[in-house]
Amino acid sequence: MKAPGGIKGSGTRRSVLLGAAFLMATSAIGPGFLTQTTVFTEQLLASFGFVILISILLDIGAQLNIWRIIAVTEKRGQDIANAVLPGLGYLVAFAVSLGGLAFNIGNLGGAGLGVQVITGLDPRWGAALTAILAIGIFLSKEAGMAMDRITRWLGGLMILLTAYVAFVSGPPVGEAALKTVAPDKVDLMAIITLVGGTVGGYITFAGGHRLLDAGISGKGSLREVTKSSVSGILVASLMRVILFLAVLGVVAQGVKLSPANPMATVFETAAGGVGLKLFGLVLWAASVTSVVGAAYTSVTFLTSFSPKVKEKQPMFVIGFILVSTLVLVMAGQPVQLLILAGALNGLILPLTLGTILIAAHQKRIVGSYRHPVWMTAFGTVVALGTAWLGGVTLMEKLPQLFSQ
Question: Per the UniProt record, which residue ranges are transmembrane (predicted)?
Fold first, then answer.
């Protein structure tokens, strides 16, 4: 997928930069992102706006650090980790790929449910058809550009459809704006959970690795890389804010959301039968773009194990999608694997971000580049916060895993 000799043409370069931002954003906007936002809004009401605001700032802090050091070193995340401590990169690659595989199974499950809502088709068939579409992207001669386009188109579609539901739900915008800066309560766990859900695991590396594959790297590209990294966070955050307003408009009417499918309740309450179909379309779009992002990024972490993986990267991405699909169709979503992967995913961000922060201050890795102190401070806060949450989650989930 790498463009030999780099990107030619300013238009193509801008397209790749925007595509990288949307790849990261749509990787974050999966079934879990949608459910998470809906549930937290029902619990915290308008005060959830404050949680979103703080998480956006922390997300930017984490992503700026990671994308800049990838660009400066012209190395992928696992290779930077190996430069910090030999062998650490292989641990990072294994952890990210395991989490990516487990969550890809969940993403395909979400896609199947979305297809079922739209057409009535069995979810397994919906998942299989979605997998075929995703595989088609990577069979293209210009797989990278195809990936950029579909994430932009479907990302925009999700935002527009959800914005319509937010409009018809009639949210108390004034109250939401007030509580965003003066909340009734602050939920620290919700903040850290949102940060992990937006830039945790493989997600924050998706766009950074895409730019590297496209030949956009080096100190001369830092301004563009920085802009693209912030844009990715803002796109994901825009979707989060719009969905928050849509949910708030419904729960403010006293509607209790269904625990089994809270987001479906929101869309159907706001827009009736049409709203339910829109829910299916948004869920499918969120799922398929996350499938593409998870498969692509997970395989970029495996390239360090063998030169053949890098040479045949699209084929390995296709294999990754096929394995995820077979597990889902034959065994459903394996609860134990998802529990373990979810707990481990909480520890991946502090591990990867912590490694990046160490690398940022080692001349043998970054050369003459001087990393801004404020970025280091920002990154440290995010790394420590998510490490705490990951540890708590792991202690809670491991007993459940071994008791089943």
Answer: 44-62, 83-105, 125-143, 150-168, 188-212, 233-255, 275-302, 314-331, 337-360, 372-395
